[in-house]
Amino acid sequence: MRPGRPSRPVSPGSWTGTGTITVWTDAVLSEAYLNLPNARVPLLGFAAYSGTGKTTLLKQLIPLLKSEGLRVGLIKHAHHEADVDQPGKDSHALRLAGASPVMLSTSRRRAIIMEHESPRDPVLDEELRHLDQCALDLLLVEGFKREGFPKIELHRTGLGHALIYPNDTQVIAIAVDEVLDPPPPIPCFDINQPRQLLDFILTRFLPDARSALVLR
Question: How large a percentage of the chain has pLDDT more than 90?
Answer without folding.
Answer: 44
